[in-house]
Amino acid sequence: MSGIDPAIISHELNVDQSFRTIKQKKMKFGPDRAKAISDKVDRLLKTGSIRKVKYPYWLANPVVVKKKNRKWRVCVDFTDINKVCPDDSFSLLHIDRLVESTAGHELLSFMDSFSPYNQIRMNPDDQEKTSFITDKGIYCYIVMPFGLKNVGATYQRLINRMFDKKSGTTMKFYIDDLLVKSLKESEHIQRLDQCFKILNEYGMKLNPAKCTFSVPSREFLGEVLFFRCDLDQRGFKEISRVHLWSYYHETLRVASGI
């Protein structure tokens, strides 16, 4: 994966040097989890996302959990290194404002980045701080991995830079969720073209399987957009149930006092 030019942005770990380094002891995994880790290492090596390390000062173990589709999700336990890194004060946008700003738009296009964090490289001086141990050896990340502290802020900082001139008028974004909106159908192709030119300029890759183009409605950040801001029906049912239950108890309370 080529990714974003490091001259534009890279992820840095501002490690507090007053803390001692920590090397986790190698964990044992069952056959299924061990195979999932091995397969993940092979994929990361193939894409140039990790490299081998000989003498790391920081060392973590993989974490393997089963997803809803019964497949394995493999990441790294960065708990120790995260504890010695200060919070990035870069603030994320408010989801409610993002959703409200899409009201009344005739056409919407929704895009997701492909392995968004992996498109940004780690600062070379900080790569070995992401070292993790496996049966195949010790590796560190060349790209920004999921689970590392402040990666969301770094990614949002990049997106803000990319779409700074378009934010608010034609596009909305929240981390790896990108929305192109148009009040009129005739404007939509032009706005998509502007978006693609920016993505191409920065080398940002999209995940086609998670992209939906030129539709009047779809779920975005947990709410359904359809010409105006509508609550997802699932959420509406839950809210209705709560209000009915509260009304029932209030009725009993009043009746008992008569």
From TrEMBL:
Residue stretches making up the Reverse transcriptase domain: 46-225
UniProt xrefs under Gene3D superfamilies: 3.30.70.270, HIV Type 1 Reverse Transcriptase, subunit A, domain 1 (3.10.10.10)
Domain of life: Eukaryota
InterPro entries in UniProt: DNA/RNA_pol_sf, Rev_trsase/Diguanyl_cyclase, RNA-dir_DNA_polymerase, RT_dom
Coiled-coil annotated residue ranges, if any: none
Name this protein carries in UniProt: RNA-directed DNA polymerase-like protein
Organism this protein belongs to: Cardamine amara subsp. amara
